[in-house]
Every structure is written in structure tokens, then in C-alpha cells.
Design goal:
The complex is a heterodimer of chains A (about 240) and B (about 525). Chain A contains ten helices and no strands. In chain A, α3 runs antiparallel to α5. The longest helix of chain A has about 30 residues. Chain A is elongated. The model of chain B has no long low-confidence stretch (mean pLDDT about 90). By secondary structure, chain B is mainly alpha-helical. The chains are: A mainly alpha (about 240), B mainly alpha (about 525). At the A-B interface, α2, α3, α5, α6 and α8 of A face α6 and α7 of B.
Chain lengths: ~240, ~525
């Protein structure tokens, strides 16, 4: 019994931070893998990264230590004993502005700055990742009209099946059709490039119902291929719009 | 030139900024600027390599901010350290980048119109990140550079199409999990050792006998798992085929040869330089089960490659199988296996480059990479096909291509370490690759479609019109880089001993088992 109590004490009181970080990490991981909504996945990703930040910051916590910039006596919130410090400081190092090596017994007064610095970088990386991921979500929504993974996968499957279909299966027409589409691409592509830069919100409603096949793959001329489901093809430049 | 290492980063980094800024007004400048940056960086890479080879210790250091190395454990500030392995990998990254940048002019204009400046900006940043991974001597800095390379990689893939954006999303989620696990592992290492310098960490592990510490084992597992996810090792490979197949062709030419290979380099670096051979292979249990995972990985990836009917998708699964080779070569824990692994990183980068450049040209000229669209290509584009199949034969492992020699060392390692399962699976996957590439040759020469229908009228009749088989080569700006890559494959194959000498010099201090048993 006593042993268990000690363990509980250690987990809940001494290592509470680490327990929380593990819980957060698992919540984030679960959301990233099991949630079907892309935005929820991203929320999970943020929780995941935050958990790691908590871990690093917990590492450098020190009881009664201060920030590693001032000596304790220089702390603007502490008592000022300027007259005592000045001779001492000049005695320790020749140039008071230069780096000052701490004595071993002094180091316990300062928190370790390195993990904090590392986490500043990690936060920046996390923000960049999140921004990019949100932009991707927007592209996916514009292209497929959904951010639910199940619906998206169903649509992608149809698109992939079309894309990987044998060129023979399409019959004789396809060759002509694709070459026509390619020759007509240039002007349309320019238009598309501009259009995407400021992808008008007004376009969303139409792009929503756009058939997946018309979307993309300007890369492989296959995309330019035959016009699959002709619903919603009133707009003549449509197949290229997604290409940008 | 003492600062050659710094110049490796200065060229692509500032080139990338210049592309982003100037590109808005002078779009035509972007491509020459990218090629110029890559030329400069490659020159600096060669210079660094020569310095590393010339120095007695086999390494060159560059300390950012003028910190010193004299303290124990080694290093206070961030160190860039080019030992023979790092310099070799950096040179591979820069060389591949240079060839792809030469190749990129036409496909980039065509596939991502009006976005050239952004594209080349990302392209150069990607090279900066990958070269940085190869040269950094600091474990946290490595995390940052991995993320730099990953983020630019997501951008380069998603710039293509909406389908690519959807594939990138999965890549992003998995990539972030991988990188975050690595970061977490570095945190545990830092708690135990108090340093982030790679060599410093090993010095501390040895000095303080940390091999028994559970925290170090947790760190090892987290870092290992993170790297395995990033390198698309078999159960974690799901992001790779979709992302590489739907990416613009220049992106797949750049990422496919480099990203997975550089992550394998990171694994070798972690095992040898950071954790040390004794800890990685003797203390942990990974060396017991990893070879078996490798067996599963190679078999599954090879079978999935067989099931594909499209060149790019097939190549993507080939990459997954090749990752299995290299991981296996490391984990059989043998001197020759490790030589094979490192050599295979280099040769695989070159031959994958050949194949993807070739696939890009096929896509450019034929508008399809499906097997059924390949009839008569040898008549139409003989030079492209020669380049493509030099890469293909190297993947199979035919002499005198470099793939033969790296596979030779891998198999030797498997034999010496008595890892028969690894050897058998290498042989099996070689057979599969033979089938894959000779089936392609068959499709090009015969008039039989994938569904088994005969399209011609027998005796060399391909069922094509005369115009369709007329000599019609790819533009020179795409063809020459492909032939250059193919000749590199052959040259590395012929001069393999020189490369292996440097690898042996790098591995000499690590005391790996050369004979049977551990």
C-alpha cells in the first residue's frame, strides 16, 4: 500500500507536468489518426505539438530560480544593492559588458534558457506547419467540396480510377480530344493562374459541385482528357481552373 | 577556401530569396538563377568534400557564431560538421539538385504556369534543408532542417493539382508525427546528456555510462520511430506513392531520389555518431527484430510494385522497397552491410533520379505513363529510353551500373552476418525488379496490351501509325540531364572503389564486426 501511495505521490505531485504532457500527446495523436474531419486532425496536430512544448519547458523548471539574464541582485524586482555590486562586478571580469562565466554554486539560481530557446524555434515550425495545412485544407475544399475524410476518399478514388485508366480503354477519341485540350490550354492556364491567386470566394459554390475529374492534373496530359461527367460544364474554361 | 561549408547554404538560401523577390517582375530570371545557385552550391560541396578527404581526421567543422569546440562535451554553439559521410551525402543532394534544376525549365513552365518564382524559391529552400540535414552537427538543428525540408516538400507537391494537395495532407500529418517524435526523443537525450552536439552526446553517453538509463532507451525508440515514419519504411509508407505520383514531375524528380535517402542517412548518423555502435546494436533490442521487419517491408513493397500499371506509381513502390534494402543493410549490424547501405544511398539516389527524369519525359511526350501507352517508344525516343533503362538496370543490379556494386556489398553483409532471411529477400526482390523492367521493355516492343489484347497484326507490327513511331526525341534541355544522370550511374559503378574507400575510411573508427557473430 505504501509503495503505491508513494508512486501516486510522485506522479501527481512531483511529475504532474510530465503526466499532463503524456495525456496531451495521446489526445493529439488520437485526433490526428482517428478523427475523420481534416480540421479536427489539425487541431489534434496542434495539441500534439503543444504537448511537446510543455515537456521541454517542464524540463528547465527550477525551484526558486530566475531568468538567466540578470544576476539576482540586478533583478529590478528584487532589492537594489547597487553600491555593493559595482566593485564586485568589476572585480570579477575586466569588461563588465563581456560574457560572465558563472561559478558552479551560482548556476542553481538560474533557469536553463536553452529549452525555452529551442521551443521558440519549435513554435515557429509549428505555426508554419499549421498555416500550410490550413492552406491545403482550403485547396481540398475548393477542389472537392468537402473536408470530411470519408467523402474525400470516395471522390479521390473515382478520380484515381479515371487517371490510372489505360489510354487504350478510352478509345480513339481520346487522343484527339487530349491534343485539342492541350493546344487550347495556354490562354486558359494563364487565366487560371490569376484566378487562383485570389480565388474568389464567390467561386466556391460552383467549385463545390465541380466533378472531381475536371479538377487537375494539368501535369499529366491525362487530365486534359475526355471530359468525363458533363454535368456542370457550362463554363468552358472549367477543366483548367483547378490546374493552377 | 575555408568557409566552403557555409557557401553550400549561402548559394541556395539567398538564391531562394532572390527568386521569390525578383520573380514577381522578372519571371524569366528564375530558372537561370536557380541553376546558378545550384552550380555555386555544388562547387562548394565539391570543395568541402575535397577538404574532408584531404584532412587527416576526415572531417571539416564550421562553427556558427564563433563558438569553440574545446569544451567537454564537444561544442557549445551550433556546429556544421562535414565528415566523409556527411560530405558525400551533401554532394549527392547538390548533384541531384543541379541536374534537376537543369531539367526543370520546360516542365515547370508547363505544369505550374505563372508560379515559376515560387516554385524555384521552394526548390532552392528544399536543397538548403536537405544539404543542411547532411551537414549539421547538432541534434536540434537537425530537427529544424528536417522540418524545413519537409515543409518545402509539401509546398512543392501541393503546388501541382488539387489531387496533389489532398495527397500532401496525409503526408503532412504523418510527416509532422514523425518529426515531432524525433523532437521528443531529442528532449530525452538532452535531459540525460545536457548537450545537443551529436559528438558531444556520444561522449557524454560513454563518460557517464548512460547506456543502462531507461530514458536513453525511450529516446532511442522515439527517434528511431520518428525517422522510420519520415523515411517511408514499409508500414508507414502510405503517404509516399500518392504524394509522388500526383506531384508535378520536377518535384517527383527532386524529392524521390533525395528525401527518403537523406532520412536513411539520418538514421545511420543517429546510430553511429549520436548513440554509438555499442548502445544502438548491443544494448537495445532493435537489431533483433529490425531485419525481420525489413523482410516484410521488402516483400510487401515489391509485390505492390508488381501490381501497378503506371510507371510513376510503380517507381514509388520501388522506392519503398529500396528503403527496405538500406534499412536492412544497417540493421544486420555488419561492416559490409553498412558499406552497402551507405553506397546504396548514393547509387539509389542516382538511379531513382534517372528513372524519374525518364518518366517525366515520357509524360511530357506521351501524356500518359500507363503501360499501355508505351508501345513503340524505343523507335520514337531511343536516347530517353537508354537513359531510363540504365537507371532500371541499376535498380535490378546489372554490372557495371552502381546498383550492382551496392547490392553486392549488401548481400555480402547479409552472408557474413548470417542473416539468410535478408539475403533471400534481396534475391527475391531482385527477381521482381527484373520482371518489372523487362515487362516494360516488352510493352514497348510488343503490341500486347495490359488486358492481354493483341493490338497489332503480328510480326513487329505495333498497331501504330507511321507518325506515332517516327523519331521524336524530347527537347535537349530535358534529354541532356537524363543522359548526364545515366552516365553518373555508370561512372559511379566503374569507379566504385574510390567511393567505397571513403566510406571505409569513415567507418574505420566505429569498430563494426567484420566476421561471423557479434
Amino acid at each position: 500500500m505504501f509503495e503505491e501511495g508513494a508512486l501516486l505521490n510522485e506522479l501527481l505531485i512531483e511529475r504532474l507536468n510530465y503526466c499532463i504532457y503524456v495525456v496531451l500527446l495521446l489526445i493529439g495523436l488520437h485526433a490526428m489518426i482517428a478523427k475523420r474531419n481534416l480540421i479536427k486532425k489539425l487541431i489534434g496536430m496542434s495539441i500534439f505539438q503543444t504537448a511537446i512544448i510543455l515537456f521541454y519547458v517542464s524540463v528547465s523548471v527550477k525551484e526558486g530560480a530566475t531568468i538567466p539574464i540578470y544576476k539576482a541582485e540586478h533583478d529590478p524586482h528584487g532589492p537594489h544593492l547597487a553600491e555593493e555590486i559595482v566593485p564586485e562586478a568589476s572585480g570579477e571580469s575586466e569588461s563588465p559588458r563581456g560574457p560572465l562565466a558563472l561559478k558552479p554554486e551560482e548556476t542553481s539560481q538560474y533557469a536553463n534558457p536553452l529549452p525555452h530557446v529551442l521551443m521558440l524555434t519549435a513554435i515557429v515550425v509549428g505555426v508554419a506547419t499549421l498555416g500550410l495545412a490550413l492552406a491545403l485544407c482550403q485547396r481540398i475544399y475548393q477542389g472537392y467540396g468537402t473536408i470530411e475524410e470519408d467523402e474525400l476518399l470516395a471522390k479521390l478514388e473515382i478520380a484515381d480510377a479515371r487517371m490510372t485508366r489505360s489510354p487504350l480503354a478510352k478509345g480513339r477519341q481520346s487522343g484527339k480530344a487530349s491534343s485539342r485540350a492541350l493546344s487550347g490550354r495556354k490562354p486558359a492556364a494563364k487565366q487560371a493562374g490569376g484566378a487562383v491567386a485570389k480565388k474568389a470566394p464567390a467561386k466556391k459554390s460552383s467549385s463545390r459541385r465541380r466533378p472531381p475529374a475536371s479538377k487537375d492534373k494539368s501535369a499529366s496530359g491525362e487530365s486534359a482528357k475526355p471530359k468525363i461527367p458533363p454535368r456542370k460544364r457550362s463554363d468552358s474554361s472549367q477543366p483548367k481552373k483547378g490546374s493552377a | 577556401m575555408d568557409d566552403a561549408i557555409a557557401w553550400i547554404f549561402i548559394f541556395p538560401l539567398f538564391g531562394s530569396v532572390a527568386c521569390a523577390l525578383l520573380g514577381a517582375w522578372y519571371r524569366r530570371l528564375c530558372h537561370p538563377l536557380a541553376v546558378f545557385s545550384m552550380l555555386g552550391a555544388t562547387w562548394a560541396g565539391v570543395e568541402t568534400m575535397l577538404q574532408a578527404v584531404g584532412s587527416t581526421s576526415g572531417e571539416v567543422s564550421y562553427l556558427l557564431g564563433g563558438w569553440t569546440l574545446d569544451l567537454f562535451p564537444r561544442g557549445v554553439g551550433i556546429e556544421f560538421r562535414a565528415d566523409l559521410l556527411g560530405a558525400l551525402i551533401a554532394l549527392v543532394v547538390l548533384g541531384v539538385g543541379l541536374i534537376v534544376s537543369l531539367y526543370s525549365k520546360i516542365p515547370v513552365e508547363r505544369e505550374t504556369p505563372n508560379k515559376e518564382s515560387l516554385y524555384y524559391s521552394l526548390f532552392l529552400l528544399q536543397i538548403t534543408g536537405l544539404a543542411g540535414i547532411a551537414l549539421t552537427g547538432d541534434a536540434f538543428n537537425l530537427y529544424v532542417l528536417i522540418e524545413v525540408a519537409a515543409l518545402t516538400g509539401y509546398g512543392l507537391i501541393a503546388i501541382g493539382s488539387n489531387r496533389a494537395a489532398a495527397a500532401t495532407f496525409n503526408y503532412l500529418i504523418l510527416g509532422t508525427i514523425g518529426a515531432s517524435l524525433y523532437l521528443l526523443g531529442v528532449g530525452y537525450v538532452y535531459i540525460k546528456t545536457g548537450t545537443l552536439n551529436m559528438v558531444g552526446i556520444r561522449e557524454m553517453i560513454q563518460a557517464n555510462a548512460l547506456a543502462d538509463s531507461p530514458a536513453m532507451h525511450v529516446a532511442f525508440a522515439l527517434i528511431g520511430l520518428g525517422i522510420l515514419i519520415k523515411m517511408a519504411f514499409f508500414p508507414f509508407h502510405a503517404w509516399l506513392p500518392n504524394a509522388y505520383c500526383n506531384a508535378p514531375s520536377v518535384t517527383s524528380c527532386l524529392l524521390a531520389p533525395l528525401v527518403t535517402k537523406v532520412m536513411i542517412y539520418v538514421m545511420i548518423r543517429m546510430l553511429l555518431t549520436v548513440f554509438g555502435v555499442d548502445f544502438s546494436f548491443e544494448t537495445t533490442l532493435w537489431a533483433d527484430f529490425m531485419p525481420w521487419l525489413v523482410v516484410v517491408a521488402i516483400v510487401c513493397a515489391a509485390v505492390m510494385a508488381l501490381a501497378q500499371r503506371e510507371i510513376k506509381r510503380m517507381l514509388a513502390y520501388l522506392i519503398v522497397a529500396e528503403v527496405g534494402y538500406m534499412v536492412g543493410g544497417v540493421w544486420i549490424y555488419n561492416y559490409y552491410g553498412l558499406i552497402g547501405s551507405i553506397f546504396h544511398i548514393i547509387s539509389d539516389a542516382c538511379m531513382t533520379l534517372c528513372l524519374f527524369l525518364g518518366a517525366g519525359i515520357i509524360l511530357h511526350k506521351c501524356k500518359t505513363t500507363h503501360f499501355d501507352g508505351l508501345r513503340g517508344l524505343f523507335a520514337k525516343m531511343p536516347l530517353t529510353m537508354i537513359g531510363f533503362f540504365v537507371g532500371g538496370f541499376s535498380i535490378i543490379g546489372l554490372p557495371p551500373t552502381c546498383g550492382f556494386f551496392s547490392k553486392w556489398y549488401l548481400i555480402t553483409g547479409g552472408m557474413v552476418a548470417e542473416r539468410w532471411e535478408y539475403m533471400v529477400v534481396l534475391m527475391f526482390s531482385t527477381m521482381v525488379m527484373v520482371v518489372l523492367f523487362f515487362r516494360l521493355i516488352e510493352r514497348m516492343h510488343l503490341a500486347v496490351s495490359e488486358s492481354g489484347k493483341n493490338l497489332g497484326k503480328g510480326h513487329g507490327d505495333l498497331g501504330l501509325t507511321k507518325e506515332q513511331t517516327k523519331f521524336d526525341e524530347a527537347p535537349l534541355s530535358m534529354l541532356l540531364p537524363l543522359l548526364l544522370a545515366a552516365s553518373v550511374v555508370l561512372i559511379i559503378g566503374i569507379y566504385n572503389q574510390d567511393v567505397v574507400d571513403q566510406i571505409e575510411r569513415f567507418l574505420a573508427p566505429f569498430n563494426l564486426p567484420k566476421g561471423i557473430g557479434h
